[in-house]
């Protein structure tokens, strides 16, 4: 199937826009490769004292590292046992070392990176560090790989900011092959529909805290990624479709023989890829791979956080994408998956229905994705229509299913859930924003209602608890939640209250310069409004009762107030940070708040914006 003309046009536009920055990036990684030893392993030209430090504690691998040309893998790990998704990584370094040793190579843990959980910090002060942790992870990854000891790298990370940070940091070493080794999702727990019901019942005062905790614990119950389709599982989808995972490895559950076999294989592939320029990370992550990532995200209704993270990851490889690229592709990429919060199924159901293999096959067969890309598995995205399985103790791949095994979860391009990808970029006199419409019912895709303005999410919840939001249509304007204001925390805990108001028969929407990620669902949410209020954006002049129109059909976000009157208003507060800037480590990130770029440029500190 020829490439769809819109996919082709967007790819050409991205390539032209990126010509200068991509060329500079490729020259930089070529220079890094040329600066290494002419032959032998990456550590071959280290001085004796340098090498002695590097191998002092290497035990059985010490002789191999000092006296042989064996290749060495640098492992960068985000392991901790507080995050269910990262707990399985505790055993990965040992497995990777053993597999590398058996293949004649070596692996060392080059460094660790922080990994915080938005699910734990929701509504807490620590959430204000969450987005910035991505850039800390990028910096930490660069530090880990800076020792000139490695011929390849394996990255261990799954969740929200961790994978984008690992990728951003590793792309500075894009002359090396880099594979990501996933941990996989936890097994299915309490059905998502029941979880959502209990959350709304608690918000309405119809369930107590014990009932809520019981439901949440039945949902998040063991090792592995949370099973809803938020940023963590969107990360896994992106890494596979962009060629940085082994085929079919994203959604294999932890603690299984297949998961262990795939981890061992990552070590072998990293060693084999060393020195192969076509498998260098900087070659794999190119313009076509990035467009493939956007397409897959749209086709599955993935996390809105990737309108920032994917922009930042691409920029780290010299590829410049914009929200308009997402929006234009969304008009031609159909929605092929229904995974909570866009449906009731979880990622295990998606995987069982045909998963990544069927999704990629459908996209390729209908000209919606580029096949002519490089991957860690070899040339061509079509390699990713295969699924791994164990033939006895041997890991092999076979072609995945050609038809969905559950059309309530995964469908074909010929029979999609929706003809578009369910992501819109909104423009208007309140700025630019993104909205995910894949879970929004048609009756709620245009909302025109009076604004109720809040400068803090807790104030909205207090107003809801006091009954002040009952009995009326409204657009909740939650401002001073952007990167410069307070680090752009997720506003996930607002979802049950807003959803309950909508269920009571009212037109409800939220407009914010903050983010909601996988939490954005049935209530229309104009997110990441830029310029943000803390930078003097129009949101800071909105007042209670102003009529706001959020129109996802026409792509507009408008304040229906006379322009002269609006321009004459004095802001309720000055630009700059909002709320406390100290406590829980916030004071350490003052430089980040001052330097961070806008959401539509990736909200990054470590890259140009």
TrEMBL record:
Binding site residues for [4Fe-4S] cluster: 159, 226
Entry GO terms, CC: cytosol
Pathway it works in: Carbohydrate metabolism; Entner-Doudoroff pathway
Note on cofactor: Binds 1 [4Fe-4S] cluster.
Catalytic reactions of this protein: 6-phospho-D-gluconate = 2-dehydro-3-deoxy-6-phospho-D-gluconate + H2O
Residues in Dihydroxy-acid/6-phosphogluconate dehydratase N-terminal domain copies: 72-381
GO biological process: branched-chain amino acid biosynthetic process; D-gluconate metabolic process; Entner-Doudoroff pathway through 6-phosphogluconate
Required cofactor names: [4Fe-4S] cluster
Class of this enzyme: lyase
Listed Pfam families: ILV_EDD_C, ILVD_EDD_N
EC number: 4.2.1.12
Keyword entries, A-Z: 2Fe-2S, 4Fe-4S, Amino-acid biosynthesis, Branched-chain amino acid biosynthesis, Carbohydrate metabolism, Gluconate utilization, Iron, Iron-sulfur, Lyase, Metal-binding
Cross-referenced SUPFAM superfamilies: IlvD/EDD N-terminal domain-like, LeuD/IlvD-like
InterPro entries the UniProt entry points to: 6-phosphgluc_deHydtase (IPR004786), Dihydro-acid_dehy_C (IPR042096), DiOHA_6PGluconate_deHydtase_CS (IPR020558), ILV_EDD_C (IPR056740), ILV_EDD_N (IPR000581), IlvD/EDD_N (IPR037237)
MF (Gene Ontology): 2 iron, 2 sulfur cluster binding; 4 iron, 4 sulfur cluster binding; metal ion binding; phosphogluconate dehydratase activity
Domain Dihydroxy-acid/6-phosphogluconate dehydratase C-terminal: 409-603
Family statement: Belongs to the IlvD/Edd family.
Function, as annotated: Catalyzes the dehydration of 6-phospho-D-gluconate to 2-dehydro-3-deoxy-6-phospho-D-gluconate.
Name the record gives this protein: Phosphogluconate dehydratase
Organism: Pseudonocardia alni (Amycolata alni)
Gene transcribed to yield this protein: edd
